[in-house]
Amino acid sequence: MSYESMPTGQGRSIARRLKPDAVLQMISGTEIFNAAYFLMSSQEGSTGGGSRTAPCISPSAKWLQDQVSSVSGKDISNFFKWHVHTLPFAYKLFVQPTETHSYYEYFGLYGEYTQEINDIHDQVEDFWSNSGVEEDIRLLSAHGSDLADRDDKLIPTLEILFGSSYDEEYSIVQHAIDIQDLLSRLPSGYDNPLLTFNAFATDQDGDDDYPSIIIGDGYFEFQQSVGLGSEGPEYALTHEHAHHLQFWLGVPEENVLDIAYVV
User: Fold this and answer.
1) Domain ranges of the chain
2) Would residue 54 be called left, alpha or beta, if left means φ above 0 and alpha means ψ between -120 and 50 degrees?
């Protein structure tokens, strides 16, 4: 993962700033993209806009379809065209000030998984530390509700991802307004699980960077819906810790199953 250091702005401490497209590349290749393809295909089929056959889908993709079954094909198309599903993760990784991470992280829409996730994280770090793997992994959470803050969260995130794409005809402020209008039309709005249905690990890249694990609210909501609310969080977190062991050992990406999780 490549990035460029970004100096502290006016009262805002920026964690990291990626080179163009690096955020999107990092978040791609996970379960959300299989779900995205299915959602787009099913919308086209329902409106007569195409004859493609939807691929064999996982229970998670079917569940996501149910969460947005009332959403228009145009809104679904713009949701993915604008990479809205990357924004809560990009905000947390690259915009939120680093000093707030350890104090304000909560897991689940209402913080219901916070204690469990933190306890498992401590146990896993202790285990690997005793095995000789010394890692200080930051544990992060992604919330769609962060996108409700247009000035301090959404616009800075759009600047990182698409800053060079805006002009006088279509400004970053207008894009932020359009995104918030779209999200207001989703069932449950900013809490719709399509926004945060992902989990992945990031490796350290440079002395000022840090390794991390980030899990979205949508992931927890899906696992709860299929009866995995007690075991699911433990599986997700230990799986992502295994990716950090992979990083530490220097195992090439092509030699591992490189997805966030399988459901």
Assistant:
1) 79-255
2) beta
